[in-house]
């Protein structure tokens, strides 16, 4: 259908039928949708027809109210009216950020609202409870069997134990600071969502849990950020996985199986800092871990992870990264030789991003004596170097190494917070370095 717009006093958008204006308003928060209603008398009540509710209990500022919600009771009344008004219609989106202080259990309110949303075929549910709650909010059982839910984000709530989970349309699951009454609840949420593609977990909390089990035949993206001192294990079993990010400072046991060919892996897991060279079990675990990510195409590692990789390489050979084309590492300036040894395990590397740090290391960078990795001759095209406030000498030496030994290099970028008076000196030094690649461009940031 083609709409014929004519310019009028209220603008082109006012010529749209009500259902299209409501659709436009659905992309706004409820606060902004109510504010927009003052633009035209015709819009005065259209926000009430929007098939979604997006509210913050302390930051609404309704256009028709003198102030924000004065009490949580006002907030409850407002949400109740919304569900009453939509008792015969579907609800596409429900986002509630409840922020209050006290010992009141708000589970009864949320149970009523989530039950109502599930009945009205909810598609997107985003529930954020403030950390100042003295009584944790429990999620009702109706949520586990929603037939229409596509996106679910829960923050600071409790997921109660259930025997039945069926979420046939769920594609995105984000859980932040969520507590579980037992460790099988999370496993069921994942395994009983047959089209789940995106999983994000921040600080998994379950007193009796020993491992996070992520098993899915459809997951494409997994982001685990644990943030705690407890020592949990982590098992990833996802054959279609394309992106994996793990931050797990205390995890001793990371097991990744059946992941196919992930496009990108981002690891920040300090798992080797206490590795005993004589502990064959730990060495075997780490060997399996590196083998499981060896087919990745892009690898990002933190300083701790890079250091642990170098530690492992001193104990036994590292598996070849035969498909790796992009590598981003944070490396101490005293470990440049180990970095080159890592590059030797990456024969198809095309892009390298290297951040050099100096965490009060007593041993400074010396002359690089290692043989040139094969990727510098056959595949490396882009190098980005970044230093952290310890002078430009080391970065220039590393830049010199890549310029003099990289046959196919197209661009080398050097970034640092140089003092203004040193910038021209650095630029002249870079320009004077002989280059193995005649097409290489040097960029100084």
Automatic annotation (TrEMBL):
Residues 10-46 form the F-box domain. PROSITE patterns: FBOX. SUPFAM superfamilies: F-box domain, RNI-like. InterPro entries: F-box-like_dom_sf (IPR036047), F-box_AtFBL13-like (IPR053781), F-box_dom (IPR001810), FBD (IPR006566), FBL13/AtMIF1-like (IPR050232), LRR_dom_sf (IPR032675), LRR_FXL15/At3g58940/PEG3-like (IPR055411). Gene3D superfamilies: 1.20.1280.50, Ribonuclease Inhibitor. It holds the Pfam family LRR_At5g56370. This is F-box domain-containing protein. It comes from Capsella rubella.
């Amino acid at each position: 259908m083609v709409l014929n717009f004519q310019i009028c006093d209220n603008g082109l958008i006012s010529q749209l039928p009500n259902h299209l204006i409501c659709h436009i308003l659905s992309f706004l928060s409820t606060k902004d949708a109510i504010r927009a209603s003052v633009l035209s008398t015709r819009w005065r009540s259209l926000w009430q027809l929007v098939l979604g509710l997006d509210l913050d209990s302390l930051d609404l500022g309704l256009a028709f109210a003198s102030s924000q919600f004065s009490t949580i009771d006002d907030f409850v009344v407002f949400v109740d009216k919304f569900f009453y008004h939509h008792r015969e219609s579907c609800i596409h989106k429900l986002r509630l950020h409840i922020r209050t202080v006290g010992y009141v259990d708000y589970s009864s309110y949320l149970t009523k609202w989530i039950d109502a949303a599930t009945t009205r075929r909810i598609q997107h549910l985003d529930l954020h409870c403030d950390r100042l709650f003295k009584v944790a909010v429990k999620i009702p059982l109706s949520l586990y069997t929603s037939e229409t839910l596509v996106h679910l984000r829960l923050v600071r709530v409790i997921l109660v134990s259930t025997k039945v989970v069926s979420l046939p349309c769920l594609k995105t699951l984000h859980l932040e600071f969520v507590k579980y009454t037992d460790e099988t609840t999370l496993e069921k949420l994942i395994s009983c969502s047959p089209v789940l593609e995106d999983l994000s977990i921040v600080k998994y909390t379950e007193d009796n849990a020993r491992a996070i089990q992520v098993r899915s035949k459809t997951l494409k993206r997994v982001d685990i950020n644990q943030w705690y001192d407890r020592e949990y294990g982590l098992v990833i079993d996802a054959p279609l996985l394309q992106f994996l990010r793990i931050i797990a400072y205390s995890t001793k046991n990371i097991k990744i199986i059946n992941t196919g060919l992930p496009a990108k892996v981002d690891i920040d897991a300090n798992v080797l800092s206490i590795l005993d060279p004589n502990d064959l079990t730990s060495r075997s675990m780490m060997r399996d871990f590196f083998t499981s990510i060896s087919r990745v195409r892009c690898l990002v590692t933190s300083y701790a992870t890079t250091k642990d990789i170098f530690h492992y390489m001193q104990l036994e050979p590292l598996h070849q990264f035969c498909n790796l084309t992009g590598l981003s590492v944070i490396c101490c300036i005293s470990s440049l030789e180990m970095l080159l040894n890592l590059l030797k395990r990456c024969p198809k590397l095309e892009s390298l991003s290297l951040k050099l740090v100096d965490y009060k290391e007593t041993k400074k960078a010396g002359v690089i004596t290692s043989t040139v990795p094969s990727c510098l001759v056959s595949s490396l095209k882009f190098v980005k170097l970044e230093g952290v406030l310890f002078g430009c000498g080391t970065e220039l030496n590393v830049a010199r190494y890549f310029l003099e030994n990289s046959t196919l290099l197209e661009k080398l970028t050097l970034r640092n917070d140089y003092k203004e008076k040193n910038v021209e000196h650095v630029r002249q030094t870079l320009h004077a370095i002989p280059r193995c690649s005649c097409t290489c461009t040097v960029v100084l940031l």
